[in-house]
Amino acid sequence: MEGVGELATKMLVIVGPTGVGKSALAMRLAREFDGEIIGADSRQIYRLMSIGTAKPTEADRVAVPHHLVDIIDPNERYSLALFLRDAQDAIHNAKITPIRLPIVVGGTGQYVWGLLEGWQVSSTKPNAKLRERLELRAEYEGVGALYEDLRRLDPEVAARVDGRNPRRVIRALEIFHSTGDDARADVNRVEERPRKIPPDYDALILGLTMERRALYERIDERIDAQIAAGWLAEARELRERGYGLAGSKRGMAALSGLGYGELMRHLDGEMPLTDAVQRIKYRTHRYARQQYAWFRLSDERIRWLEAPLRDAVFTRLIEDVREWLRS
RNA sequence: GGAGGGAUGGGAGAGUGGCUAAAUCCACCAGACUGUAAAUCUGGCGCCCGACGGGCUACGCAGGUUCGAAUCCUGCUCCCUCCA
Q1: Distance measured from the CA of protein residue A289 to the C1' of nucleotide B10, in angstroms
Q2: Which residues contact A124 (CB under 8 A, 6 or more apart)?
Q3: Is the pLDDT of residue A133 over 60?
Q4: For chain A, does the N or the C end have fewer beta carbons within 10 angstroms?
Q5: Cβ count within 10 A of residue A56
Q6: pLDDT digits (tens, 9 = 90+) for A28-43
Q7: What is the pTM of this model?
Q8: Which of residues 39-58 of A touch strand B (CB under 7 A)?
């Protein structure tokens, strides 16, 4: 057991709902322990979308190396599999040359646990054309029709897929079709791979939390501040560059994030700004709630800290981390 | 002063004699989640009970009609629009 500890890659992980102050804590710890920050955030990856995604500031990024932020354009696609690859690379690189402590920080639960638990993801890549076709069919005939297909083609997979969730059913069909009709030989089939292979990480997972009401207030204040900081102009700029809502009803993945869609609809004259902002606040509340489903207060792996971190607590944390690094 | 319209659950808003504790949306609470994840999907959401069943209280207020009313009638209160 001692040997494993020596070999394992030590890293810090900071999780918690949106707006609790994960980034700020990450910066303090990075400074303290000569760390590199690795974003586990599915929205900060997009260039040109900074205010709305509450990206780390330029100053912070100069002071501490950040990874997985600003890596693709808004019209490009990203996914769990890509994140896993990129994050693993970033962690690996932090451990060579000037050795630094990787600090994974982000609110995207799927990314965080996928990385820490070593999820084995199907290698079947997204097939945009197929998805579009199936989505259209789901809309006209209902998800039920697609699910029927799946049941007919691959009952085993169908049994473990949520037949009411179009995204899931479509992905399952996508995997099925990518390998031809002989699904039996498909090494990509979900149940024929190990679900997860625990990576050799020794992660100290820190969770930041806050009483619900206070969190909502803080979120609302932050959104007002983002608007004041020019979020609307950023949305307009995005649209002018061609990354707008136009075309497909839902637009590109980047715009499915909180706020940008609402702001663009306001720019299109569909609703007053105050309504758009209120909608953003509510959606963000809901998002924060969802995050608690990934990061449970009862999860023993997470060391939870009460959000406005008191100095004494921070000092204590520094000591504990230092000791943990030595162990 | 006159003529109309309206008051429904935290909010918006259906319902116009029984199928209604009351559609739907939002808020809120909970859950799922393995290449779209800030996405997508699911459940709950008056109160109480040993709760796949039952009880109580509910649609501005008070009374009435009816076997039965959020729904019909009367009065009252408040709100809105138009005329003066």
Answers
A1: 19
A2: A174, A175, A178, A179, A188
A3: yes
A4: N
A5: 22
A6: 999 999 999 999 999 9
A7: 0.90
A8: 41-44, 52-54
